[in-house]
Write a structure and sequence with these properties.
Conserved hypothetical protein from pyrococcus furiosus pfu- 392566-001, ParB domain; alpha/beta; five-stranded mixed beta sheet; 3 domains; about 10% strand; 15 helices; 7 strands; about 290 residues; two-stranded antiparallel ribbon; single chain
Length: about 290
């Protein structure tokens, strides 16, 4: 059964400490799996579900030095795959790569039996909990856990030890145009800068200006606000179209949400406009509408 099914669906983070083993849980792992094994470096293969696409040379060299001095304190988690020689790494690819740099020929590992679905979920969550993923890698990992496993933002936040607003803000990065994503991936834009340009009608142009001129996040937010078309003032005709019930509903929603709400009835259907001035206010609206 997948970790996202049945009773285990909400324990995506809680089960990992038992699975991966902190210093006090190795005995349980040994009892559960038949013990750790020593595996030759050449018998291991990277997991195709690994969310990390880039491995910084500096960090790998530092980890390699640490492995030489202290050894590999945390075993890798591996699985066997039908039709493949050796083993696939579910957790610990950075340690495996660093071990190669350190010319360590074998590593301790825990052999588990996972389906592809289980391996994917565990690899995603383990990286979110343990590694400093790049912003877009982190966002894509959250998205896959939401779409493929049905986890809510609240479950993700609890499972990886982050706030719900952090998860929500990271997911918004996936809405960036490709050009802005490239700037973010290359480290030319910070996460704060990238979030700020999202509000601009032409976010890619503003992002490029931010890089060239070294704009601050506040400066970007101000420019993005200026680029927004000014809202049209309601005409007398529009006001007349609103009956007393509609106006009462507007006032009631405004009071409940704490934000200005405007209802614009049309011949068929209409528009509901909720005005917010910050991402925190947007988060609050989402929480109230979702009943969380």
């Amino acid at each position: 059964m997948s970790l996202s099914q049945g009773k285990n669906r909400k324990s995506l983070g809680r089960g990992l400490s038992a699975l991966l083993g902190d210093q006090n849980s190795i005995t349980k792992l040994e009892a559960d799996t038949g013990g750790m094994v020593s595996v030759a470096i050449t018998d291991l293969r990277p997991c195709p579900f690994q969310p990390r696409r880039r491995f910084a040379d500096l960090q790998l060299n530092e980890l390699a030095k640490s492995l030489l001095e202290k050894g590999i304190l945390q075993p890798l988690v591996i699985r066997s795959v039908t039709g493949m020689e050796g083993y696939e790494i579910i957790c610990g690819e950075r340690r495996w790569r660093a071990a190669q740099l350190a010319q360590i020929h074998s590593v301790p590992a825990v052999l588990r039996h996972f389906t592809d679905r289980e391996a994917l979920e565990i690899a995603l969550v383990e990286n979110l909990q343990r590694e400093n993923l790049a912003p877009l890698e982190e966002a894509e990992a959250y998205q896959r856990l939401k779409v493929e496993f049905g986890h809510t933002q609240e479950e993700l936040a609890e499972g990886v030890g982050k706030s719900r607003s952090h998860v929500a803000n990271m997911l918004r990065l996936l809405l960036l145009p490709d050009g802005v994503k490239t700037l973010l991936a290359n480290g030319e834009l910070s996460v704060g800068h990238a979030r700020a340009v999202l509000a601009a009608p032409n976010s890619e142009l503003l992002a490029q200006q931010a890089v060239e001129k070294g704009l601050s996040v506040r400066e970007i937010e101000a420019l993005a606000q200026k680029e927004k078309p000014l809202p049209q003032k309601p005409t007398m005709k529009k006001l007349i179209l609103k009956d007393a019930d509609t106006l009462d509903l507007e006032r009631d929603l405004t009071s409940r949400l704490g934000l200005t709400v405007e209802i614009s009835p049309k011949v068929k259907g209409g528009h509901l406009l909720i005005q917010y001035k910050s991402l925190d206010q947007l988060d609050l609206v989402i929480q109230k509408l979702s009943g969380k």
